[in-house]
Amino acid sequence: ERGRLEDQAMAALHQVVELQRRNILQTETYRTALSRTTAEHWDQTAERQRTIRIRTRELLANPIEPLGGLTPAIRDLSVNEMAHAVTTLAGVANAEPASREAPSAEALHLQKKILRQLPLAQAAAADARIARRVTGLSAMLGALIRDQGQALKQPREFAETRAEVGTALVDVQDALAEDVTAFRAACDAESSEVRAGDAALADTLEDIARRCEEASIRNDMVMAAERLDENLPADAIPFEDRALLHLNELQALFDGVRLK
């Protein structure tokens, strides 16, 4: 769902930029022959400018906030310059041919001001998309660390009390092993997604996926689950300890990513 919303937002933002460029070109063309333009010509530019504002407001309403830190600035742009550009172009359409010079110049000025902001919005959207991906991966890893830490407490208790290990704990440890597999796959996938925008981050995610595999975190978790299934909690503890240690090492790499 997140990926679909991101793709829709990036496509919509690209459309807004292209529409604004087209409207600027059309406005400049009409201004070279103001006396020969009709109300219908300027109505077309006003309608296109209205579409630009509608598409921008849809972007601002997107629940993932695709514009990131530039959201307030683009919201102000939508309320002010974008709205003013629509009314100014509509005013040109309603004006007499001899009176179109000043409002058409103002409309062109507003459109160019809008266009100067839109590439910044595209860059902010790309940065926000990358930040969301890093945050999502870090949340996956944080959950693994938390749950593995919780799972480690019970074998110690079972080893001390010599109580029988239940199947619930075995299932938890098995599930964590599968979550590690999902995490590593997600790192690989996100690395490919962000490479065009941030090659250094892509390399870091590849490194995390590689270390995850080389450290045999999943294998340690599987071995721990097997020992627990055999009612040997003391033998499971070293595997769980080592898995947790390596998970924390991966977290340190993510902490470095967030500081960049």
Any idea what the shape is? rod-shaped
Number of helices: 8
User: Mean pLDDT, rounded to whole units?
Assistant: 89
Uncertain runs: none
Distance between the first and last residues' Cα: 27 Å
The SSE string, one letter per element, is HHHHHHHH
Structural class: mainly alpha
Radius of gyration: 28 Å
How much helix is in the residues?
Answer: over 70%
For the secondary structure, the number of strands is 0
* Largest β sheet strand count, sense and barrel closure: none
Describe the overall structure.
The protein contains eight helices and no strands. The two termini are 27 Å apart. 29% of the residues are buried. It has 260 residues and is mostly helical. It is rod-shaped and about 95 Å long.
Highlighted features:
mainly alpha, rod-shaped, 85% helix, 260 residues
